[in-house]
Amino acid sequence: MMDNHGPAVPSLPPMTSPLRVLILGGSTEATRLAGALAADAAFDAVVSFAGRTEAIRPPAVPYRVGGFGGIDGLVKYLRDARIGLVVDATHPFAAQMSTHAVAACRLAGVPLLAIERPAWTPGPGDRWIDVPDMEAAVDALGEARRRVFLGIGRLNLPVFARAPQHAYLVRLVDPPKEALPLPDVEVVVARGPFEAASDRAMLERFGTEMVVTKNSGGVAADAKLTAARELDIAVVMVRRPSIPARPVVPTVEEALDRLAKLAAGRTPDGLRAL
Ligand code: NAP
User: Considering only CA atoms, which of 268, 232, 237, 269 is closest in space to residue 93?
Assistant: First the structure.
């Protein structure tokens, strides 16, 4: 009998090695994603932290700490560590890291997926003052002395030094190592997630008249917004910085869904585009 199917095509060896995933961390989403990937043999993940906070909560997978050294440094890391996919799960205000990730992934030919939680939007009873950046937030406080809660992290505090007439309540993850650049300041050291009842008690105790926050989105830090609404306190809401276009999903669950499809579609030549 004639074989009219031609010579047999050698079948490709199955892709048995797990997909190396770099998770750019610093958010609750990054930690949750790491936990899920740790339990899945299809993935071999590593989390990267900037190292801004003193007490790192170790994720369920290996982690590294510190900057990569700009775009070129990240390209080198992606190649050296044989990364097959980057998930940008940084905080929505970590614009430099996210911008570098877009450029480095393009240069290294590595697919990139970002988890970007939806921004907060005002609801009934909210008194929000929408501002484009921190400088505008300082202006929004006005000339008259006010009692202001700053829930913005440590790095943005120097901007408020040019408005020393206000009394500030500042919430930080770590105790400050040096004096803050604000003459009238009280510091609360606490790490989220926060509860609306305790945030309300904190704002009431300080006699807070205005709240300044970044539009981080998510549930870990929205308690202060509920508390401000209940106390009829104005909120200066700093808009998110812009980041170059990239594939984005809003939740860890959707990221896992994309990753599973991606891992299933792997070929020896590379990964299908996200
Ligand atoms: P950024 O301004 O976007 O980044 C500045 C530089 O820090 C980057 O160019 C990079 O250095 C390094 N870096 C940032 N994130 C990194 C990461 N995950 N792994 C390794 N290096 C990283 O960032 P940022 O706003 O200072 O935030 C720093 C970290 O804190 C981020 O991981 C972010 O998720 C987290 N965080 C930020 C905020 C916020 O409001 N900005 C709030 C909560 C948590 P090289 O150029 O040397 O690579």
Answer: 237
Cβ of residue 51 lying under 6 Å from some atom of ligand 1: no
Q: How far is CA 256 from CA 32, 48, 76, 87, 264, in A?
A: 10, 18, 26, 10, 12
Mutate to test the pocket of ligand 1, among 56, 90, 243 (most ligand atoms within 8 A of CB): 90
**Residue 46 is inside which H or E element, if any?**
strand 43-49
pLDDT tens digits, 135-174: 999 999 999 999 999 999 999 999 999 999 999 999 999 9
- Opening angle at CA 237, ends 235 and 242, nearest 5: 175
Closest ligand 1 atom to Cα of 94: 3
Number of structural domains the chain divides into: 2
Judge whether 174 lies within some domain: yes
Phi first, then psi, for residue 185 (nearest 5°) are -140, 140
CATH of the domain at 93: 3.40.50.720
Q: How many CB atoms lie within 10 A of CB 269?
A: 7
Q: Is the dihedral of CA 104, 106, 107, 111 positive or negative?
A: positive
DSSP string, 154-194: STTGGGGGG-TTSEEEEEESS--SS--S-SSEEEEE--S--
d(CA 163, CA 175): 22
Query: Which pLDDT tens digit goes with each residue over 39-66?
Result: 999 999 999 999 988 778 899 999 999 9
Query: pTM for this one?
Result: 0.89
In terms of domains, do 103 and 171 share one? no
